[in-house]
Amino acid sequence: MNLVKLNSELIECRTCPRLVAWREQVAREKRKAYRDQEYWGKPVPGFGDPAARVFVVGLAPGAHGSNRTGRQFTGDASGDFLYPALYRAGFASQPDSVSRFDGLELTDLYTAPVCRCAPPGNKPTPDEIANCQPYLETELKLIQPKVIVALGRIAFDSILRIFSLRNSAWTFAHGAIFPLPNSAFCLPHSSLLCSYHPSQQNTLTGRLTTEMFDEIWNKARELLTRNS
Questions:
Q1: What percentage of the chain has pLDDT greater than the value 70?
Q2: Which residues lie across from 112 on neighbouring strands?
Q3: CB 187 within 8 A of CB 171
Q4: Domain with 27 in it: what CATH number?
Q5: Model pLDDT for residues 82-96, shown as the tens digit of each residue
Q6: At what angle do helices 126-143 and 153-162 cross, to 10 degrees?
Q7: Among 19, 4, 7, which residue's Cα sits nearest to residue 128?
Q8: Mind listing the pLDDT tens digit for each residue in 99-144?
Q9: Count of domains in the chain?
Q10: Rounded CA separation 72/121 (Å)
Q11: If you average pLDDT over residues 148-177, what whole number do you get?
Q12: What letters, b where the CB count within 10 A reaches 16 and e where it falls short, cover 119-152?
C-alpha cells in the first residue's frame, strides 16, 4: 500500500449512506457563489508532503470547502486561517488556498481529516468516524510522523483511539503536549500536540487568535528539534 493506491480507493468509498447522500446533494445543488464551479463531491484524501514529520489531523470536509475543491482545508474559512499560519511557520509555499490546482505545496507537513466526507451540520456520527479510521491509520503508518497535531477534540479523541490510549490524565487543551507510545503509527519518541480547530466558531469569537495559532506551529518546530 502507498498513498496513491490508498487515495484511489478512498475516493471511491460509499460506506456511509448518510454522508454519500449529503456530499452528492451539496455537489448538485451548489452554493450560489460557486454555481459555475464543478464540485468534488467525493471523499477528500489527505494532502501534503509524503515525507512529512508533522501530521495535522482535522475534522471533516466543509460542504462548500473541501467538498467543493477536493483538497483538505481549501476554499473555506478554516483554511483561510490555517494556511497563512503554516506559511508563516515555513510549512506552506503560499498563504492562500483556493483550489487544488493553485500550486500550494506543503513541506514537512501532511494533513488529513478524521472523517473524509462532508457531514450534515459538520457533525459526523461515531459510526461514520469509525468507518473512516482505517484510512487515517494507514496514512499514519505510511507517513511515520514525529509530531501529530490534533485540531480539535474530535481529532484528539481519534488519535487516542488509534493508539489505544486510555489515560485519564490526557485531556484536550489548547497547546497541550503528550508523548506518544512507540507504535506502528509514528516514529519513536513522537508527540501529540493539541490545538483548537481553526473554525470560525473559534476564530471569530477570539477563542483562537492568530498569536495562539502561531505558537502551535512554533511548538511543532520545537518538538521536531527535541525529538531528532
A1: 99
A2: 57
A3: no
A4: 3.40.470.10
A5: 999 999 999 999 999
A6: 70
A7: 19
A8: 999 999 999 999 999 999 999 999 999 999 999 999 999 999 999 9
A9: 1
A10: 18
A11: 95
A12: beeeebeeebbebbeebbbbbbeebbbbbbbbbb
pLDDT at 227 over 80: no
Quickly tell me which residue has 486510555 as its cell: 166
Please give the residue range of the domain that contains residue 101: 3-226
Nearest to 52 by CA among 187, 169, 195, 171: 187
**Using an 8 Å Cβ cutoff, are 226 and 148 in contact?**
no
Integer Cα distance of 117 and 14 in angstroms: 10
Nearest C-alpha neighbor of 55 from the set 117, 113, 4: 113
- For residues 51, 193, 196, 116, the Cα torsion angle rounded to the nearest 10 degrees is 40
Please state the rounded mean pLDDT for residues 7-11.
96
pLDDT of residue 228: 58
